[in-house]
Amino acid sequence: MDTSKIVDRDETLRVLSGFNPWWAGRPFPEEAFHRLAFNACRKYLQDQSLRRALLLSGPRRVGKTTILYQLAREALESGLAPAGTVPDPKSILYLSLDHPLLKLLGLGGALRLYHESIWPEGRPALLLLDEVQYSRDWGTEIKLLVDVHPEYRIAATGSASVAHRDHLAESGVGRWLTIPVPTLSFYEFVHIRREVEVSVAPNLRPGDLFTMKTAERVALAERIRPLLPSFYRYLLVGGFPETARQSDITLCQRLLREDVVERVLKRDMTALFGVRNVDVLEKIFIYLCLHSGGIIAHKTVASALGVSALTVANHLELLEQANLIYKLPPMEIGGKKVLKAKNKYYLADAALRNAVLLRGEEVLTSPDEMGTIVETTVMRHLYAYYYRDTPEIVYWRDAKTEKEVDIVVRSPGYVIPVEVKYRESAELEMSSGIVDLCRKEPVLQAYFVTKREEDFGPHEIPDVRGRLMRVPAHLLCYLLGQAERLLWL
């Protein structure tokens, strides 16, 4: 389609100038807080030997656009080249590719206009491409930019992981480096709110708990204890930067419903995936809100909603690609595949559940509600921390005994079972699923996540080489979030 007759050149240049205020020396959008992914992007963009574009992938409203603007500021103030060379402001181009005019023009058309009117082609440029999946044939275009234009440094964002799952598998292999941008970790949440400061060794990782002496663990628990009110707040409003700063929980939940849930379900799913029956998609998502962390049988959901099991399976896949849910397949033991495998599903952030179901502070006094919310939160932290190891994150269930372990992180180098029992009395029985799995698999470290600080400490399992650590949820999530930061330094 020839868009030249539809898209006005001068109007489009005004749009580009509005997106790039530094061209005219106007101030940047202000945001002092840096997501962990910002450090990763800065590091990779400074590495001139890395001939790949960067793709920041994560849910809506987690700060991906902000990261792009922060990279523009970093380039202008400190330089992103190894020698710290500060570029000409016009050599930095930000494009929001979900803008109506830019959708018509496309990525290639926008770049042609940029080079014809703003910055000569062939000279070094930093391209910051927001919501890249809205540009038609973007995968092929980015591949060509990486292959043919070594003068470009490219960072792009995508709210739908289809951007690096389907398209990249076909045309972008070796051209992208994916950087996940999940919701805020509890560690980031504490720092973005700036309410409480705790003194914890910055290089402390969860695995270090197993080598600590009793006195050291007691001291650590005392230092992190002031964060407990913040943890409860985090469980309610979640890890979205905008809502993390809000004091009104009702407003937080309305913003999440409108900006995250409804926009994804009603706009993105239609535009990107061609979903026609949004009503069914919404009902499936509500079902997941009610059963986050549960084993989902497609036939059961299909029967309840009056649709086919195939429809349920397809919609669950789309919700996963939209970064709204995590999927955990069952764990195979000894290479044996699980017959009639059923997956577990977790929401990407527990606050989405609270917002959709209109759950307020009353959930903090409900053991069942808190069990679901905390398990979902622990899952988010495990996923983000172990992402670089590209492990399997699965669950384990013995079909004969019906014993179960909530989450198992498994790679060729380790197997880490995690069981969440967030209640006042959380006894670890020798007949429990996590103990049984420690006896079946080569487990060196396992976590039994509890509510009470008094439960904090190691637990020896007879005739098992590995060790199990009972640890309060707020302490484990803080350490996982802090350790997540160390991955990108």
Provide a concise account of the structure shown.
The protein has helices spanning 9-19, 36-46, 64-77, 100-117, 138-148, 167-172, 186-193, 214-224, 228-237, 241-244, 249-273, 278-290, 298-305, 309-321, 350-357, 367-385, 433-440, 473-487; strands at 53-57, 92-96, 125-130, 152-158, 176-180, 294-296, 325-328, 343-347, 392-397, 404-411, 414-420, 445-450, 457-459, 467-472. The chain is an alpha/beta fold and 489 residues long.
Comma- or semicolon-separated keywords:
44% helix; globular; alpha/beta; 489 residues; six-stranded mixed beta sheet; 18 helices; 14 strands
Explain this structure to me?
The chain is of the alpha/beta class. It has helices at residues 9-19, 36-46, 64-77, 100-117, 138-148, 167-172, 186-193, 214-224, 228-237, 241-244, 249-273, 278-290, 298-305, 309-321, 350-357, 367-385, 433-440, 473-487; strands at 53-57, 92-96, 125-130, 152-158, 176-180, 294-296, 325-328, 343-347, 392-397, 404-411, 414-420, 445-450, 457-459, 467-472. The strands form 3 sheets. A 6-stranded mixed β-sheet has the order 9-10-11-12-14-13, with helices on both faces. It has a 5-stranded parallel β-sheet with strand order 2-3-4-1-5, sandwiched between helices. β2 (92-96), α4 and β3 form a beta-alpha-beta unit. The radius of gyration is 24 Å and the shape is globular.
Class from helix and strand fractions: alpha/beta
Average residue pLDDT: 89
Question: Low-confidence parts lasting 5 or more residues at pLDDT below 50?
Answer: 162-172
For the sheet with most strands, the description reads: 6 strands, mixed
Describe the strand arrangement of the main beta sheet, using strand numbers: 9-10-11-12-14-13
Head-to-tail CA distance between termini: 45 Å
